[in-house]
Amino acid sequence: MRYRSCDNSTATNAPMNCLWRTDLEHYDLRMVPLYLCVTLAVVAVASGAPPKAGDVTKVALNSGTFMPIVGLGTSKVTDEREMEQTLDAALEAGYRHIDTATVYRNEHLIGKVLKRWLSEGKLKREDLFITTKLPLYAMRAADVPYFLNESLTKLQLDYVDMYLIHMPFAVKREAYSDGRFDDNGTDPTTDHLAIWKAMVAEKEAGRAKALGVSNFNETQIERIIKNSPVPPANLQVELHLYHQQKPLVAFCKKNNIAVTAYAPIGSPNAKWVVLSGRNLPDLFSLPEVKAIAQKHNKTTAEVLLRHTVQRGIIVIPKSSNPKRISQNIDIFDFALDDNDVATLDALDKGIDGKLFNMKGFAGAENHPEYPWPALRNTPQKA
Ligand SMILES: NC(=O)c1ccc[n+]([C@@H]2O[C@H](COP(=O)([O-])OP(=O)(O)OC[C@H]3O[C@@H](n4cnc5c(N)ncnc54)[C@H](OP(=O)(O)O)[C@@H]3O)[C@@H](O)[C@H]2O)c1
Ligand SMILES: *[C@@H]1O[C@H](CO)[C@@H](O)[C@H](O)[C@H]1NC(C)=O
Ligand SMILES: *[C@@H]1O[C@H](CO)[C@@H](O)[C@H](O)[C@H]1NC(C)=O
Ligand SMILES: *[C@@H]1O[C@H](CO)[C@@H](O)[C@H](O)[C@H]1NC(C)=O
Ligand SMILES: *[C@@H]1O[C@H](CO)[C@@H](O)[C@H](O)[C@H]1NC(C)=O
Fold first, then answer.
1. In which band, very low, low, confident or very high, does the pLDDT at 287 lie, cut at 50, 70 and 90?
2. Which residue among 22, 191, 200, 381 is buried most deeply as judged by most CB within 10 Å?
């Protein structure tokens, strides 16, 4: 086990605080009950209040803030009633981290529910961790303050906890209208460094507490690190059992960038894209996953999420079903042992297990910043 340096200690006992912020790849499983107990203790010390049900482990960010390791994904929830029920269920189940994006077209619905919880005094702003993203049709430096402002207005917030560049590639502003992208194509003039500089200005102005990127590859992240005084605090990428992203996660650990897994249970209701020419079975149907779930008396979804969380990676499962919402955050009362982990690690299919290639944005693969060169010439769209 390894301790991180603790610069902005909030707890009195530095090693304890560091344990809370520990690199979970070096988790000693025999120590899990102790970790849980210490985590709760440190949360209590840090916040000055006893831990509440649903307090979950947080991941330390290089920005000095902390990100809850389980968050709620919200893409495709665009109905007001559904969003209300979803967020009420999630906040009641203990979620404090919500992932949205301008392109999900639901920030205004999320804002309405948050406003109610905040004004009723059931939550304080500092209890929440809200992530949103710069859309791929606004990939110019001058777009950043405008689009973040729009997001804040819709969310009814003064700041977001994390602002991400959604995609490394861009489509022209004119190619987007009313939730649809036409085939007018990509904007090849994308300048990541100029956009990042504008992002940094937003952080300095206090409108974003931390900054990050999504769907960027190692080369693209490295370039930002080398050219900006403010490194990304977070990388959000596709990551699940079939696509475990081991090299990219190692790169992020080395650079102190927290990783967030999107599609953490394999986006089961989206159809699998067969990049390898093989039809991959649904993650829920895998006998290895089922057996481990049975052994721990947990659901297959809980095992899939726990596997990723145990690597120190943040997960943002999407559900609009109250039962599944509470299931997906109920993953702190058990731990996978070394055998379970070895079995699950072995199911990684690397690039062949990748679900999203983003070719649904016409011409994405020909953009100079398309992040997955290996997928450039595969025919599938998703
Ligand atoms: N940055 C990016 O480019 C990007 C791309 C994709 C996704 N994301 C983010 O990541 C979030 C999650 O990804 P995702 O929505 O694609 O996939 P996911 O979270 O892996 O899977 C969501 C699907 O699984 C079902 N589900 C959830 N919990 C379940 C459980 N316990 N048992 C069985 N089924 C369950 C949900 O249906 P029900 O709602 O019916 O439960 C939903 O259809 C998104 O919502 C979004 O916030 C980001
Ligand atoms: C943000 O929006 C508000 C009102 O919605 C406006 O007054 C302000 O000038 C905007 N700021 C930027 C940077 O666009
Ligand atoms: C393409 O862009 C132009 C404006 O730049 C617009 O008039 C046209 O409808 C767009 N859509 C398609 C499919 O060409
Ligand atoms: C298994 O889990 C379910 C649901 O959490 C619970 O009701 C049941 O008592 C558990 N069974 C055992 C044997 O622990
Ligand atoms: C990242 O994407 C860029 C643009 O396509 C490419 O030049 C670079 O080789 C990619 N890096 C990795 C590690 O895939």
1. very high
2. 22
